[in-house]
Amino acid sequence: MEFITSMFYLFSSIFFIFLLHSLIKFFTSSRPKLPLPPGTLGWPYIGETFQLYSQNPNVFFASKVKRYGSIFKSHILGCPCVMISSPEAVKFVLVTRAHLFKPTFPASKERMLGKEAIFFNQGAYHAKLRKLVLRAFTPEGIKNKVSNIESIANDSLQSLEGRLVNTYQEMKTYTFNIALLSIFGEDGVLYREDLKRCYYILEKGYNSMPINLPGTLFNKSMKARKELAEIVAKILLSRRQMKKDHNDLLGSFMGDKEGLTDQQIADNIIGVIFAARDTTASVLTWIFKYLSENPSVLQAVTEEQEAIVRSKEECGEEKVLTWADTKKMPITSKVIQETLRVASILSFTFREAVEDVEYEGYLIPKGWKVLPLFRNIHHSPENFPDPEKFDPSRFEVAPKANTFIPFGNGTHSCPGNELAKLEISVLLHHLTTKYRWSVVGAQNGIQYGPFALPQNGLPIRLFLKKEATPTPKKLVPTV
Ligand code: HEM
Ligand SMILES: *[C@@H]1O[C@H](CO)[C@@H](O)[C@H](O)[C@H]1NC(C)=O
Ligand SMILES: *[C@@H]1O[C@H](CO)[C@@H](O)[C@H](O)[C@H]1NC(C)=O
Ligand SMILES: *[C@@H]1O[C@H](CO)[C@@H](O)[C@H](O)[C@H]1NC(C)=O
């Protein structure tokens, strides 16, 4: 009997503990578990990568946005992710809660560009780098480089005269040379060919399989990366011996108080070249295309640029462009903005949630990727009526906050945006005042790799205009 009673007590106490546990659980988790955003994750592992890569990515994203709204879940490259396309969500992820969303890249890319480069980092180290990079690329930092940029633009265009060229390849050479100028100043010219050779090998491996065996593209890239770091070390050494201050990015990194290691400097220099070159070259290529398709816009830009040439002649000023001249280009500047919008060369960027985050009643689980969809934001008829139309005049009215973000926003937004706009404006000045060009072949395709680009890099032929100097405006006859 005694055995049965004790068993009874044992069971009832186990039952009681169980009950208590359930009750505690029930009351502490009174907040219902948040739902994930709508959408499908696709097949396990492969997810929806195949759909994304097998069709124009815009069609993929646009159909999702249409079906699920401005926030939805998907699954690409083996990672669950949340895609966002409203200005409010962009502000949340990139600006106000930026600390909850860290930048994220595949490990192989990180190894190739250098893991201490600015865009892979967060927190204090990132803030320090950002201050140094911004110092070199704010208007104050680049103002005195206008005439150097101009002579590089002038030389680049001259080298194209009469030839059939791939616009994108030629613009990559131009933007590479500008990047070297802003990073190394005069020293860049000395090492230009070596830097170019190494960088071109490095980039070939960037999209290759990350297999580090002798002979693979990846292995060659890693070798080129080492060689680049050695050239940077050489320049560092000679600058340290000269003890002269330099007004360029390397000079900013070398400041005594900054205490960056040589490795950190090399990673960031390779990183800045990477961020600066193909982006700006793609935008320039699109401008060639849009100007040739829109003769009235080309005409307006040409007149604006000729007016600058004329006003300098009338004042008897030197013919070289100044920073002030580049601020007298409102039409050109709207053409650049509209190109950044329509072409949206960076369709999206990546972040990763560092903890569970609640947004608008949805859960964004820790570790999930978050993709702000720049292109969809720029092509939403809510933000830009008749979005597929190339119409620079729409920028006569400033766009609403976080609806036009070709350079991103918040803590990781593009520190090179002023330089990019400057080098584009200066090239357009010489292009429109001295040259005409025609696009060769049927040109409607777009290639993505990884930046959106006209098919085949836009083959063109460039000619000097018959009359080298612009015709002055007709004088009103005085009677
Ligand atoms: C038109 C050309 C360019 C476009 C469209 C562009 C676009 C962008 C965007 C969207 C970001 C932010 C990415 C993100 O938030 O994940 C970014 C970051 C960055 N860009 Fe640019 N960029 C351009 C040219 C340049 C140039 C010329 C430079 C160098 C001088 C540069 C240097 C950088 C750097 C260093 C970052 C990383 C900033 C950080 O992580 O704090 N970019 N760029
Ligand atoms: C640009 O090149 C032309 C030759 O095509 C030369 O006459 C002119 O001085 C150059 N201008 C600048 C600013 O370098
Ligand atoms: C290339 O591959 C070999 C063999 O795996 C390796 O020892 C070498 O370090 C690699 N080179 C670089 C630069 O990573
Ligand atoms: C970036 O976000 C801030 C805060 O929301 C906003 O004021 C600003 O206009 C945004 N920048 C752009 C280019 O939209």
Helix content: 40-55%
Largest sheet: 5 strands, mixed
Low-confidence stretches: none
**Outline:** globular
* Straight-line N-to-C gap: 133 Å
Helical/strand content category: alpha+beta
Radius of gyration: 27 Å
> Briefly, what CATH class of the domain at 118-343 and 383-464?
Mainly Alpha
Q: Which fold name corresponds to the CATH topology of the domain at 118-343 and 383-464?
A: Cytochrome p450
- The residue-averaged pLDDT reads 88
How many DSSP-defined strands?
12
Side by side, the strands of the main sheet go 1-2-8-5-3
What are the bound molecules? protoporphyrin IX containing FE, 2-acetamido-2-deoxy-beta-D-glucopyranose
CATH H level, superfamily name of the domain at 118-343 and 383-464: Cytochrome P450
- What is the CATH architecture annotation of the domain at 118-343 and 383-464? Orthogonal Bundle
How much of the sequence is in beta strands?
5-15%
Given the structure, what is the number of helices? 19
GO molecular function, one term: iron ion binding
Organism: Quercus lobata (Valley oak)
InterPro entries: Cyt_P450, Cyt_P450_CS, Cyt_P450_E_grp-I, Cyt_P450_sf
Binding site for heme: 414
